[in-house]
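I can't quite decide. Please look over this sequence plus structure tokens:

:::
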Amino acid sequence: MMVFTKLLLAHLIGDFLLQPQQWVAHKEKKKAASKYLYAHVVLHLLITMILLWNLSYWKIALIIMISHYIIDVAKLYIGPRFKNQNIPFFIDQLLHIIVLYSCAYFTNLWEHTTYLFQALDWYLLTAIVFVSFPAAIIMGKLLEPMSGKLEMDHKSLPNAGKYIGIIERLFVLIFIILDHWEAIGLLITAKSVFRFNDLKESNSRKLTEYILIGTLISFGLAIITGIIYTAL
């Protein structure tokens, strides 16, 4: 576990802390011809060896450097084809982490992966999945008859409400699991403060009732999920 942690730390330092935006822009423009691409992968090699501080791991560091180069080059050429640039970014990071994990547990990769899979808390995983998008869809269905009666005179970010709801339900679930119910009250208070200006400016009773109903349903779904999880 310590080896994987050090490899992950080296990756975070090399990919985020010590990679200036100038390097990223130059790589995107020049691609495989960028001098910063090679400086970047060599930097990963050096950071990995420094953190491991053991010359016997040089093969691992070399594999990480070569794989990092291949993954980054693939991202530079394939990435622009994606309309949503978040997709190649997260795929890139996932592939890097898979390589790090494989290098850290190469002697018992299958056994360790099987152990992690069997050790998963399936109740928790199910609860987390439910309070995210399934709960958002359920809320959308419940609130759909009311939303058509609202007159929205202000613009908001696309799907902002949905993602805010997902995040707040995840927080509520975490607070319940940690047995900190008082934090849920603080979360409701904080949301009310941020919503106060919108409600004040709109001066709409319907909008106020709509937001209140949505908030109560959102928190209610998360609370029920948390109670079921702790009971199980």
